[in-house]
Amino acid sequence: MDKGLLIVISGPSGSGKGTICKRLLKQMKDISISVSATTRKPRVGEVEGVNYYFIDKKEFEKRIEQNKFLEYAKVYGNYYGTPKEKALEQIESGNDVILEIDIQGALQVKDNYPDGVFIFIMPPSLRELKNRIEGRGTDSKEVIAKRMESACEELNYAFQYDYVVLNDEVEAATDKIRHIISAEKNKAIRNKTLINRIKEV
User: Of 1, 93, 170, 186, which sits 20 to 30 A from 62 (CA to CA)?
Assistant: First the structure.
């Protein structure tokens, strides 16, 4: 294979994308998760380059102007973004990079890096999604209502992804994504170097 894959995974809050990504990282070699940059202050226990790259607002805005992010957004007064150079360095060296991101960010990435593999995690049902969010015990009824409203809207974006994976059981969903990654790695267009080398023999 010529280079690694950029695997973009997103879906509604509570769909289980974070859990799936953690399992993929444990089960697959030569794969890493993209570390975002942010202008917010580090929280207790957070490590530079592991949880986030912490930079100030002025520097972040400078990098926006220089087109150094695959995507970025401003949330509650702070910027968050995916550094383009670090992700592409990994991909060019043959390693796969997972980007767990919200839907708006994923659509930005699709514009900036259309060669990515875009996977939408689908909950079994809206009722189950609500049960998962309520089960966290961290959100008020008002916040849960807003999350459910957003989830209904976000499901409409599934058709803009390459694949949809139903997460009714985490291990099964993880296996499906592993098979998607394997199939993508074997596409002819991703194996030009191999094909040309064999032609020369």
Answer: 93
- Structural domain count of the chain: 1
Within a domain: residue 1? no
> What is the residue-wise DSSP string for the chain?
--S--EEEEE-STTSSHHHHHHHHHHH-SSEEEPPPEESSPPPTT--BTTTBEE--HHHHHHHHHTT-EEEEEEETTEEEEEEHHHHHHHHHTT-EEEEE--HHHHHHHHHH-TTSEEEEEE-S-HHHHHHHHHHH--S-HHHHHHHHHHHHHHGGGGGGSSEEEE-SSHHHHHHHHHHHHHHHHT-GGG-HHHHHHHHH-
Question: What's the CATH code of the domain at 100?
Answer: 3.40.50.300
pLDDT: which is higher, 140 or 172: 172
Predicted TM-score (pTM) of the model is: 0.87
Ranking 96-100, 113-117, 139-143 by mean pLDDT, the lowest is: 139-143
